Amino acid sequence: MKAIIIGAGMGGLCAGIALRRIGHNVEIYERVRDIRPVGAALSLWSNGVKCLNYLGLEQQVRALGGQMDSMAYLEGHSGQTMTAFDLSPVYNTAGQRAYPVARAELQSMLMDEFGRDNIHLGRAVTEVWQEGDTVFARFADGEIVSGDYLIGADGAHSIIRSHVLGEVLPRDYAGYVNFNGLVAIDETIAPADRWTTFVAEGKRASVMPVSEGRFYFFFDVPMPAGVAMDRSAYKDELRQQFAKFAPPVQRLIDAIEPERTNRVEIFDITPFNTWTKGRIALLGDAAHNTSPDIGQGGCMAMEDAVALAISLQTNTLGVEDALVRYQNRRAPRAGEWVLRARRRAAETHGFDMAVTQQWYDGLWKEDGSRIMKGLLSNIEGGPLD
């Protein structure tokens, strides 16, 4: 059985590894010539780590992951702790720790595991179609490849999604811009083993540990979409936006390197349930483009990859049937995550400041149990549970 995967992001690579493990011949095609991961890091919660463990990557992902033992919210202006708690109950219930990881390092590890000789870079797909039991993909250079099925893991701006649905879906602006990157761990900013978030004014400044003594940081700033900004202005913008925030946040801003900082306008796509068309199926952001507000974007793609391989391995009524079963298993869960993240963005980013203030007030009374219950509701229910 030959699989064509369009897209060499986290989802496409995990799918390639998973499908190889069930004996399929897999080739991955990626439009860019030089892979530069979008975003500095990602939070791999227990469900995502379990998927990588299932793919035989337990030791590799553990080596890349940060030691995140606890979680805290601090009032942004004063720096006072609103709530802080140990994450052990989450890990013990889920059966696996979370691992914040540097995205470039995770992607490089996945490429090595899949085999770089079978990842074809600089190959922009322009058209896909099916004839009988064969699916075809044409690339910008005119070459055509064929296989038994095709997986569209080509991201938020997916060409394959438009083929499957017969239309281009609009992306909805989430209402804020995210600045992110990596800095050396500095315990005058936050403890080295804690995910720490400063909140005020509908804004967030956050750090979490990744490997090799680094923090992944992000700043969320509500602002209109389409505001042009030169990279050299990032620090000045953050200093202005977070001028009233506590000294640890000012030290974090001082520590960032603008040339290594990402600025991302956050969008999502309203969930849809049609992920397949014949022998073509969607996976990852192509199927469920979400905002990062519940930290499950990468985990969703990893769950997709495992669920896809299990469906193709265990259902024997044909490829099209197996792909529909994959879709029906994944679309409701992924769609709910997209909507949860959307609701979370509205609650935390001051779109209605009364709602955000109610969230702030609740954090002062929080012992961690409600937040951990929310984390577990996202983690549980995946293809390996």
UniProtKB/TrEMBL annotation:
Signal peptide, first to last residue: none
Keyword NAD included in the entry's annotation: yes
Record pathway: Purine metabolism; urate degradation
Assigned keywords, A-Z: FAD, Flavoprotein, Monooxygenase, NAD, Oxidoreductase, Purine metabolism
The protein's required cofactors: FAD
Gene Ontology BP annotations: purine nucleobase metabolic process; urate catabolic process
Gene Ontology molecular function, alphabetical: FAD binding; FAD-dependent urate hydroxylase activity; urate oxidase activity
Domain FAD-binding: 2-338
Top-rank lineage group of the source organism: Bacteria
EC number of this enzyme: 1.14.13.113
A Pfam family matched in the record: FAD_binding_3
Catalytic activity: urate + NADH + O2 + H(+) = 5-hydroxyisourate + NAD(+) + H2O
Family designation: Belongs to the FAD-dependent urate hydroxylase family.
Protein name: FAD-dependent urate hydroxylase
Organism: Ketogulonicigenium robustum
Species classification: Bacteria, Pseudomonadati, Pseudomonadota, Alphaproteobacteria, Rhodobacterales
